[in-house]
Amino acid sequence: MERYHFTLRFDDDEHSLTAYEGLPAGKVGDLLVALSSALNLKKSTSLVLSEVRGNCYALQLTTGSKTIHENLKVIHKQVSENDYRGFTVEERNYVHTLKSIIGDRLSLSAYDESKEFKVQVQKITIPKNPDFYFETASVYGIITSIGGATLEGKAHIGINQEHFKIEISPTQEKVLLIHYKKNRIRLNIKKKINFENDRIVSAELLDFEILSDRSLSESAEMFRSIHPTGISPDVTDSVMAVRNLRHGENN
Predict the structure, then answer these.
(1) Which is deepest, 13, 51, 141, 197, by most CB within 10 Å?
(2) Which tens digit of pLDDT belongs to each residue from 187-215?
(3) Of 166, 130, 124, which is closest to residue 145 (Cα–Cα)?
(4) CA-to-CA separations, 94 to 39, 40, 106, in angstroms, rounded
(5) Residues 6+ apart with CB under 8 A from 93
(6) How far apart are CA 109 and CA 96, in angstroms?
(7) pLDDT above 70 covers what percent of the chain?
(8) HSE on the CB side for 190, CA within 13 Å?
């Protein structure tokens, strides 16, 4: 199997680092854990610390995956340029870890085995990020809760397939009350998301569409009226029975 090597070489102005006088084990551990998360490594993939070299403090990382090797290049090239556009939460965490290790004393060289790829990191400057960003999305589900904590407060709805509340207007509340625990709905929402951890802070309903005019209880009642004794014992395919029922509704 072909193996790809990538080196993270730490040094200072006095070249005082060696394989025996290098980074503390705790910092190396933090670095490798953060890097593994940034690369989104799975259990089936492998990136190992294969060697620690002297005349500096150089960590050689080895992998059998060309994709991981290329991702190492991309991440460290962007770090060397202080360009963090498009970085995931895990990649940003790796940059913060790297910055805490380098500080004002160390520098980092990152290169592959041939040194055809080589970048230098003298100082990591992380721009101040916005606290939040906004994203529009569509969600689907049935309303499981609706209302506000007070009569004057803002109303929210909960959807059975989502873990966050969605703010609604008084007009939307009046319409959606009719469909509470009844119809499946498609909701277009605007999400406010924490920039650092990508968690949804709040959500606002823009518009919605009712996907079913008949409630679950109404559908069940109709089923009972058509099949008062239940599904016949000779019905072996319940999915097909439901499809036939729906077909009958449309005729």
Answers:
(1) 141
(2) 999 999 998 788 999 999 999 999 865 54
(3) 166
(4) 10, 12, 17
(5) 34, 37, 38
(6) 17
(7) 84
(8) 7
